[in-house]
Amino acid sequence: MGFKRQSVWGLIFTASVFVLMIQPAFAETGNKSRKISQQPQEKPSNSEQDNQGGIVLITGVKANPTDNGLEIVLQTSLAKQLQVINRSSGNNFIADIPNAQLQQATGDAFKFSSEKPVEGITEITVTNLDGNTVRITATGQTALPKVELFDSGQGLIFGLAPAASTAQKPDSKPEETPSEVEKPASETPSQKPSQEDETIELLVSGERSGYRVPNSSTATKTDTPLRDIPQSIQVIPKQVLEDRNVTELTDALETAGGVTSLGARGSSVFGEGFQIRGFNVDGGIFRDGIPTTSLGVLSTSDIESVEILKGPASVLFGQGEPGGIINLVSKQPLFEPYYSTSFTVGSFDTYRGAIDLSGPLNDSKTVRYRLNASYDDYGSFRDFVDGDRFSITPTVTWDISPDTSLNVYARYVTERETIDLGLAETSDGVVDVPRDRFLGEDFGEFEQDQFNIGYTLNHKFNEDWSVRHALQYLEYDPLRYNPLYDSFDEATGELSRTEYAAGGTYRRFFTNADVIGKFKTGSIQHKLLFGAEYRRNTEDPSFQFSNPYPSINVFNPVYTRRPYQIAPEFFRDDKVTQIGIYLQDQIDLLPNLKVLAGIRYDSADQFRTVRNLGEPREEFEQTDSAWSPRFGIVYQPIQPLSLYASYTRSFAPSFGASRNNGEPFEPETGRQFEVGAKADLSDTLSLTLAAFEIRKQNISTTDPNNIAFSIQTGEQTSRGVELNLGGEISPGWKMTAAYTYLDAFVSEDNTDIEGNQLPGVPENQLSLWTTYEIQKGNFAGLGFGLGLFYVGSRQRDLDNTYKLPSYFRTDAALFYKRDNWRAQLNIENLFDIDYFSSANYDYVGGGVNPGKPFGVSATFAIEF
Questions:
Q1: Residue 756 contacts by C-beta under 8 Å, 6 or more apart in sequence?
Q2: pLDDT(11) > 50
Q3: pTM, whole model, 2 decimals?
C-alpha cells in the first residue's frame, strides 16, 4: 500500500507514513498482507540539513482513517533520512527513529497521542524519547499488536506477530523479527524498491483473542494495566466464553477463583446470586461500570468479557458488599465490517441461535454500529423444566469530531422459565431421590421483560484532559408464580408447600460524569479521576405467600397441576436515591513505584412504604452517608513483576423498612487488607498471587437483653489466598487456572454461632480450563479442550447444620477452525458424576440444586 506525496505550504511532503492498521482478530479472515518499503539511505545535501546539526525535524503528525484502520503520518522534508529500530515490550510495539525530533506547529509541540483509536489498540503515542530520537508506541488491548513490514521488491519481510496469526504475502515466508528494521547500504536489483514507493508502512493489528487480558478499566475507571493496580482482578475474556460454549453468567464464572453460585434462579428477589470471597454480591453486578439488575438469567451473548474485582469497591461504585463486584464488558462497534452467526444444539432439547453484526455506516467510519441478537429454547435434565429467552442489543458509536464521541445503546430481553426450587432437604442433608426429581408444578413460571437504553459521551479537551458522561434508564417487570417449599416430614415423605406470587415494576435511573486528567508535579506523573454519580431506583412489588398449597410426596410425586389465583396480600412502594462524589489519583512516583489513592462520599436516601392487605400503609424514611477510602502501592523491582499492597473499604445501607425498637439500623461496613504479586511470565502468560483479609461489621445480632430486638455487634471475617494463571503457554496452548483457599467464618456474635463457617463457601476451590490447537500441517485448526472444576464441601446454613459434599467435575471440548468457520463439540460432566452445584441460600422456600449430568452441545459458527 503506497501513499501519494502531500504538499504542506508547497514545501513539506509526507516523508514517512506509519500505517497502524488495527483489525481485531475476529475481523482478520481474508486479511491480506501489506508492504513496507523504505528508501535506501542517501546522504542529504547541505541544503537539506536542518538547524539542529543533522537532526531531522518532524513538523506534524496526522491521524487519517483508511479503508482498513488508521494511518499515522509524520510530516518532514527529509524522508530519506528516517530509519526505524523496533522492539516489543509486553503489549507494546515500540519503533524508535534516531536522528529525529518532533516539533509540531500546532497543539503539543513535543507529543502526539491517541487513546483507543480503533478496536484492539489501547493507545498510540508519538513523542521525543531524548534529544535525538522519536519514539512511536502502539499498545495492544489484550496482546502485543501484530506488525507486518514489507517492501515493494519482496526482498525484506518482517512478521512481528506469532507466526500462526501473522498474515503472509503470497509466495513469501515469515522470518524472525530483528531488533532493527533497516535497509542495507547497498541492495541487489531485486531488492531495490520502485521509486514510487517512498514511504515506510507498518501494519499493526490489535490481537483480541486469547486467554490473557493485560488491561482493565473496572478497578480504576481508566484503562490501566492490571500489573499497575494494587488489587486482585480476574478477567474472563471472550475467547474463554466461546471455547467453553457458555451463554449464562453462572457458567462463565466457574473459571473465576473465589466465586460461587447461590442458585435462586428466577425465583429470588435478588436475581442470580453469587458470592465473592465469601460474601454475597447483592447489587454488585455492573454492565460497563453501570449497575445492572435482572431477576432472570444474565446472558453473555453480547458480552466481550467478564471482569471480577475482588474486595470492597465502594470508592468507585458506591454501596455494596465487601467481597467484590462483577462487571460485564459489552461488545462495541468495530471499524471493519464483521458478520457472524452461530447455531448450537445440545442435550435436553437445547437450541440456540445468535448473530453478531458490526461495521461502519459511512465512508469515513465516523459512524459505526453493532447488533447482537440471540434466541435460546432449552429444556433441562430436571422433569418438566424448560424455558426460552430472546435478547437484542443494538449499539451505535458516532465520532462527532476527532475529540468527541457518542455511544448510544439499547437492550431488550424477554424470557420465560419453569421455576425449579431444587431438591428437598432435612436437618441431616439432601433427601435421597433421583436428581431429575421435580417437586414444583409445571405451571409455575418466571417471566420477565427487561429494557434499557443509554448513552456514553466522551470528549477530549486536549491530549491530557477529557470528560466522560453516561446516562442509562432500565426497567423490568418480573412475575414469579410457583409454590414454595415449606416443611418436610421425614416419616411420610410429604413436602408441604405454600402459594407464592410476586410481581411489580422496577425502574433504575443512573447518570454520572467523570473528568480524567494527566499532569505532573515535578517529576511525578498523575492520572486524576474526579466523578459525580446519581442513582434513583423506584419499585412497587407485591407478594402473595400465606395460603397453603397441596403437599407433594418426594418419593412418589403426584402433581396437582392446579393453578391458583394470584391475590397479593403484601405491598411495597420504594424510592431510593443515592448521590456519590469520588476522587482518585494514580501516581507514578518513579517508573517502578506507583500509588493509587481514592476517596468517595455517598449519601443514600430511602423512602419506603409497606402495607398488608386490609391494613393502613406504613412509611419509613432513612438517610445514610459514608466515606469510602482506598489506598494501594505497587512496586516493580523488574519490569514483568509487580508487588502490591492495598487497603479498601465498603458500605451497604440497611433495608429502610427494617427497624429495631423503632430506630433504623446503621449501614454495614467492610474493610480489606490485601497483598500480592503479579507477574508477566511471558508476553502471553501472566500470574497473580493474592493474600487478603476482609471483615464485615455492623451485622445485626440478637440482643441478649431482649430477644425481640437486635443489636449491630456482629462481624464476619474472610481470609484467604488466591492464585490465578492465564494466557498462552506456547503457540496454540492456552490456559486459565485459579485456586482459592478461603476461611470465611463468624468472628463476633452474641449467640453460639461464633466461629461457624459462612454458608455456601468452600474452603478449597480449583478450576482449570485449557485448550490446544494444532498450528501446522494437515490438521492445523484442530483443537482440544479440557476443564477441571473442584469445589470443596460447603456449609448449608449459618447454623452449620450440615455440609453439601465436595465435587470434582471434568469437561471437555473438540473443535476445528478453518478459514472463516468453526465447528465445536463441548461435553459437560464427562464422567457423569452426581453433585450439588448450589443451594438457595438467600431466601426461604427453596432447596438444593443438583448439578447437570453428562451433556453434549454442538456449535457451528461462521464469519463473513
A1: 745, 746, 795, 798, 799, 800
A2: no
A3: 0.79
